[in-house]
Amino acid sequence: MGGHAGGDTASTIAIRSLAHIEQDNLREDVASVANMMDVSVMAAHDAIVGKAKRERRLSGMGTTVTAVALVAGYWILAHIGDSRAYLLRDGKLMQMTSDHSYVQHLIDTGHITEAEARNHPQRNVVMRVLGDFDIDPHPDIAIRKAHPADRWLLCSDGLCGVLENSTIEEVMSTVSDQEECAQRLVSMALKAGSTDNVTAVIADATLALDADAFDLPHQTPLVGGAAGASLEPIADIVNKPIASAPALRYGKQSPAQRAAALTQDNENETVSPRVAQPSHMREDSEELSNPDTGEIPVVQKQDGRYSADPNDPEVADAIHHEKAERRKASRKRRHWTRLSTIAATILVLMALSAAAFGAYNWSQSKYYLGQSDGVVTIYQGVPTDIFGWKLSHEVERTTISTASLPQDWIDQLNSGISADSLDEARSHARLISREAQKLESSQSGSSSGSSSSASPSASSSATSGASASASSSASQSASASASESGSQS
C-alpha cells in the first residue's frame, strides 16, 4: 500500500524482518520460533513507521504479511492484513486465515454474505496491517501439526478476490509442480480481470531426502510480487541465489476451464526471469554474470526445465549474448552522447557567433575621435577589442596636431570621444580645430606683449647713461639702437 515505491519499500522491510528466522538456531523449538515470528512482524511494523517518518514521500505506506514456517513437524503461521493462507490436505482446501478487513467484519457480524463481499465498495479497506497507520499491528499466530503432502498457498487478495475456492482447489490438486501451480494461479487471476497486485507462493511438505545420495536438481527459491524488484538484498539475507519467477504458463485441459480459458489472449507474452547471487558469489563469478547486479539469466532448456547454472552451455551462451547486447547498447549510448555533445557545442558556438556578429554590427554604427601618430583621427566603431579583435578602424585623419592641444584634451582623445555618426565626429573635430586655433592665437598675443615692454625698458636705461649689460640678444640689440639714437641726439 502507498503506491509502487511505498508498497515495495514496506514489503521489502517485512521480508527482511522475517528472513533471519531461516538462519537462526531455533529450528527445533516451536514456541520460540512462533514468538520470534510475532516479534519480527512487530519489528517490521516499527521499521516501516520509522521509515515513513524519515521520508515523507513514503507516508501512508504499508503491507500485509502472511508467513508460514515448518518447525519440528509443526506449521507456524503468522498473519496480518487481507492476504490469505490456504492449506490443501487430503484433497480438501481450507482457508487458514481470517481477513483483517472491513467487509470480513460485516460478514462476521451477519450484515452481508461472502458473495456480497466480493463486490462491496469497501472491500479493500483493511482494519489491521503493518504500516504508517494508527491501527493494531499485532499479527495472528497459529500452530498446526504438519502432515506429509500438505500444500500451502499464500496469496494476496488480488488472487483470492477473483478466483473461486473451488477453482483454487482444482489447480492445487491437479498441478503437482510448485512453480507451475503458482504461475497458473497468478495467470488465471490476471486474466480474470484482477486489478490488484497478484502474488502466490506454493509450499509443500515432503519427507526429507539426503540430497547427496540422490541425483536431485538444484532448486532455486523464486521471488515474485513487490519483492521481485530488488532481488540482491534478499539473496544476501538468505545467503543463496534468488530467482524471479519465469514467464507465466498455463494448461488448457485444467478442470478449472472457465478461468483458464481467459488465458488465450496474449499467448506470446514473455518475461525474462533472473537469478541474483549473494555478494560473495558475485565476487567469485563476476565473469559468469552481470557484474553490476550479479544476475544470471534463467534459460528454459529443450526438455522444459529451467537452468541458471552459469556452467551450463545454454546459460553461458545467454550470458555471452546479454553481454554483447549490453556492449552494443553501451556503444549506442556513447555514440548518441558524442552526437549530443557535438550538437550542443555547435549550438553554443552559433549562439556566440550570433552574439559577436550582433555586437560587431552595433559597434560599426558608432564613431569616435582619437589620435594616431600625433594627429586627431576619426574612427568607426568603439575604442575596445574582444580577445584581440579590434572593434574599430580608421576612417579619416584631420590636420590637427595633438602637440598643440592641452594635456587633458589629449587624455580624452586617448580614451575616445564618442559620436553617433560620422558627421557628428567631423563636427567635434572642427570644434577642436577652432578651439586649438583660439588657444594658439591667445598664446601668440601673449608673446607679442612681452617683446614691446622690453624695448621701452632698454631705452630708458640708455637715456640715463647706464650701459646695457643684458646677455640676451634682444637686450643687446635694444641697447645698440638706443645708443645710436643717443648719439644722434
From TrEMBL:
EC number from the UniProt entry: 3.1.3.16
Domain PPM-type phosphatase: 1-205
Keywords: Hydrolase, Membrane, Transmembrane, Transmembrane helix
Region (Disordered): 249-296, 436-489
Molecular functions per Gene Ontology: protein serine/threonine phosphatase activity
One Pfam family named in its UniProt record: PP2C
Compositionally biased spans, kind Low complexity: 441-489
InterPro entries: PP2C, PPM-type-like_dom_sf, PPM-type_phosphatase-like_dom
Transmembrane segments: 58-77, 336-362
SUPFAM superfamilies (UniProt xref): PP2C-like
PANTHER family in UniProt: PROTEIN PHOSPHATASE
Protein name, entry field: Phosphoprotein phosphatase
